[in-house]
Amino acid sequence: QVQLVQSAAEVKKPGASVKVSCKASGFTFTDYGINWVRQAPGQGLEWMGWISAYTGNTNYAQKLQGRVTMTTDTSASTAYMELRSLRSDDTAVYYCATSKWYGLLEYWGQGALVSVSS
Amino acid sequence: ETVLTQSPGTLSLSPGERATLSCRASQSVSSSYLAWYQQKPGQAPRLLIYGASSRATGIPDRFSGSGSGTDFTLIISRLEPEDFAVYYCQQYGGSPLFGGGTKVEIK
Fold it and tell me: How does pLDDT run across B16-60, given as a tens digit for each residue?
């Protein structure tokens, strides 16, 4: 069965970077795109961007351009999301999710909490 | 930039009742690339509906979606105890974005 297992929770200081991983199993990794979505405490969902696991092409949400980088390691069936210059309002649960159709989020990871605090 | 507005913000209903959730887009959603997700506390969202009206794998037929253009609706025909959750609509395809969510709570 499709499974996405994300890395553990992290605590970071403002200005630091975080890299969240998402290990996939149960499907052919390169047949899908991987999206990243975040959710601040008590808030709604925010789409952050997408990467094609086949080509490595990316598309990022405009508000995160320049601070976010999404990559994949196809040999390990793992996707990564790095967010730099962290601020307190980056505190959120970060989810990865597969998509066959761009942006349609079919299967989700369990989420990884990133807390940014001085 | 498109904005998705969901209403109502909170829906208070009893098990067995019908729930009607609305999602209105500020611009037409192309090719009905509109999805609905369910999220329970402490869990990741789950895909319910895509293409405005197609149920995702394993989703019970009490969930139905309809609409086109700028107005979309999710109906839960008879609420089961496990259906009390937050529901999000989402435009996918061009520039993915989510609505603010509707919480369906037990009355």
Answer: 999 999 999 999 998 789 999 999 999 999 999 999 999 999 999
Burial letters B23-61, b for 16+ CB under 10 A, else e: bbbeeebeebbbbbbbbeeeebbbbbbbebbebbeebee
Contact by Cβ (8 Å): A70, A33: no
Cβ pairs bridging A and B (under 8 Å): 56
Q: pLDDT tens across A58-77, in order?
A: 999 999 999 999 999 999 99
| CA proximity to A19, closest of A60, A61, A72 | A72
Tokens of A103: 């942006």
- Which residues have a Cβ under 8 Å from the Cβ of A33 and sit 6 or more positions away? A50, A51, A52, A53, A98, A99, A100, A102
Tokens 């993915």 belong to residue: B96
Establish if B7 touches chain A: CB-CB under 8 angstroms.
no
- Interchain contact A108–B (C-beta under 8 A): yes
Residues 23-52 of B with CB under 8 A from A: 33, 35, 37, 39, 44-47, 50
Contact in structure between A56 and A72 (CB atoms under 8 Å): yes
pLDDT in tens, A32-62: 999 999 999 999 999 999 999 999 999 999 9
